[in-house]
From TrEMBL, chains A, B:
Family named by the database record: Belongs to the class-II aminoacyl-tRNA synthetase family. HisZ subfamily.
Protein known as: ATP phosphoribosyltransferase regulatory subunit
Domain Class II Histidinyl-tRNA synthetase (HisRS)-like catalytic core stretches: 18-320
Organism of derivation: Candidatus Endolissoclinum faulkneri L5
Note: This function is generally fulfilled by the C-terminal part of HisG, which is missing in some bacteria such as this one.
Length: 386, 386
């Protein structure tokens, strides 16, 4: 028996769907992981911010925040009598701080953050409604080097906490909308086509789209390792405007693979789900053993000012914790009642966990076992329990 | 100019009253302080828990939670269509976990936690509505040693993060209600007397109370350093039932002063404000330089089970941060565009903060200054900026 939480699964408190208490080594692992990630981002010049958990609805849904509207818990603030919301995403908050409080800070502004976010809705992919978001944003620099810096930073954060194998999937979310605009499709089939593209449904696409649909069909077939995918994209009969969209991904891929020659980088140029507010390249981070992305990011417009182009990423901490081996609860040493404080203090100074006995007992060994300890401190010596 | 947030006070986002973003070294200091405090509590066998930010109203307001009812933000959960609340206090949540999920864990259960709490209301003493609570609870042990353990733990946490001078004020919140019950006062003056006691208003007390008021008046005059105060209490003509209430404070004071002979310990036996749910001794922690308590705690009933007596404490992190010297923003080294990654990495490995240049510039010195850096990396050497 370990010193650790003895959980009675039948007695777990009824909490709203999507909420759960996090206990013991898991709670500790989460906190430690956040610290490590933040200290790395800080070492790269990112300034840590801790935005408020609650904001007025209008600031919370500004710019990139608009995409989170459906997920926001709203209520009336009894003091201001205005609608306030619990944040569903922190990217928007970092952008808000950069464009208000830190408007006079030199550009680019680099910010990092970690904190809880809350979602009203739950689905199969995201069963939890209380999540931890870890992220970084660089606001006010439009270069490929900026895009590459945030991708490499996300990878460094994940590697440092123990995610060994990482794959980066590069997307160009503005490409499909551009091609669709170019095709001048009738409004009534536009959304059906959009859906067919998202589902990579080539049959529907061929049936519905007009003569220019062959480009879309060709685009849908391109995804996979970057060298081949970028080559295929070059060979596709794209309009000139769309061709311009290939320059940045190529630059960024070159920068990140120069630095990380063995990194798995794939390209999925037609994918755009969930990247509706992204204006440049977007990326998802995957690892072996996890079906879902463990992080995502990309370039977006952080506010109305055209100079406020930003690039950043979000790491889904719950998913990272899921794929990493669980921390074992550290065994504890039982300290019989009356033991001099200095002796147990010395153990703690050496990194041990102590559990103090609060009353004299007849059998200290039995009491140590009852408390889930693995050893006992007797006459200044730690003795293992059989 | 430091590499740090350049804050424009005129541009700070409008947030609801009592909410503010926490930036840079302050955000970092807060996170570090939490870690240090949690790791100490864990070393004493306290199991870290991270309860949910939201619960159903009925579980949130159970037991000791009832006292937080006025502070709880409530809303309707769109999934369950039930009233949910944002936690205003985490003590209740620790008690809830101990009495449900961890009901089968050996007693005492020791839990520690750190997290945000939200209050609907604000007042002069508590202007913030989003606060960080750090605390520990021991559930299921009624001894004086348990009371002493949590007081000493609170002190150790505060000392370790840099609070040098600490004073513990011991209260007996159940004493005044017992004396009042004994006086059999008419219902209509009961609350006036209660208020007079809370305000140490001896004149009103003398005028209103009956013949037994002399005990109350005597009690009100007793507060200050423990040795004298405990002596004065012994000499007061208390009824026998009330005299029983003096045993535990005396035991606890003996235990903590044995361990900490130089600790400032005071006794304020008539004080009970904010300790309405406390059943045994209660305590407040003060330090020099801060008007308000920086922590508080005491013994309470954690649920309906009479065996669920608990003792614990809460530390108000914002107040601790206020009295400590502010962390200086660490200066950053500017890394000119094109510098080999290994060179900047080596600096970070040595604990430096680097800020990468993202484009070639004519004057690297000027750019480093513009970015708020204090030095620049040139040919593998860090050169201070004049």
């Amino acid at each position: 028996m370990n010193h650790g939480p003895i959980i009675n699964p039948e007695k777990i408190t009824t909490l709203p769907i999507g909420f759960r208490d996090i206990l013991a080594s898991r709670a500790d692992a989460e906190a430690k992981m956040i610290n490590v990630m933040m200290s790395i981002a800080i070492s790269h010049g990112y300034i840590r911010v801790k935005p408020t958990l609650i904001e007025f609805e209008n600031t919370l849904l500004k710019g990139p925040g608009a995409a989170t509207s459906e997920k926001v818990f709203r209520l009336i603030d009894p003091i201001s009598q205005r609608v306030i919301g619990l944040r569903a995403d922190m990217t928007t908050q970092a952008a808000r701080i950069a464009s208000t409080t830190m408007i006079d800070a030199p550009r680019p502004v680099r910010l990092c953050y970690a904190g809880g976010v809350l979602h009203t809705t739950t689905n199969q992919l995201n069963p939890e409604r209380e999540l931890v978001q870890v992220g970084a944003e660089m606001i006010g620099n439009s270069t490929a080097d900026a895009d590459a810096e945030v991708i490499l930073l996300a990878i460094e954060l994940l590697r440092t906490v123990g995610v060994k194998w990482i794959s980066v999937d590069i997307m160009i979310p503005a490409l499909v909308p551009l091609l669709l605009a170019d095709m001048q499709l009738p409004a009534e089939i536009f959304s059906v086509i959009r859906q067919a593209i998202n589902q990579k449904d080539v049959a529907t696409l061929k049936k519905l789209a007009n003569s220019k649909s062959s480009i879309l069909v060709g685009l849908l077939k391109i995804f996979g390792p970057y060298a081949e995918a970028m080559q295929d994209l070059e060979e596709l009969d794209l309009p000139d405007k769309a061709r311009d969209f290939l320059v940045r991904p190529a630059e960024v891929i070159k920068l990140i693979t120069n630095f990380e020659p063995n990194l798995s980088v794939t390209v999925d140029p037609a994918e755009s789900r969930g990247f509706e507010y992204h204006t440049g390249i977007a990326f998802s981070l995957f690892t072996r053993g996890g079906k879902n992305e463990i992080g995502r990011g990309g370039r977006y417009q952080s506010d109305e000012d055209p100079k406020s182009t930003a690039t950043g990423f979000t790491i889904y901490l719950e998913r990272v914790l899921q794929i990493l081996p669980e921390d074992k609860q550290k065994p504890a040493v039982y300290i019989p009642y009356g033991t001099p404080h200095e002796q147990s203090k010395a153990l703690r100074m050496r990194g041990q966990i102590t559990v103090a006995g609060l009353t004299p007992v007849v059998d200290n060994y039995a009491e140590a076992k009852r408390m889930g300890c693995r050893s006992i401190l007797l006459n200044g010596q730690t003795v293992a329990l059989s």
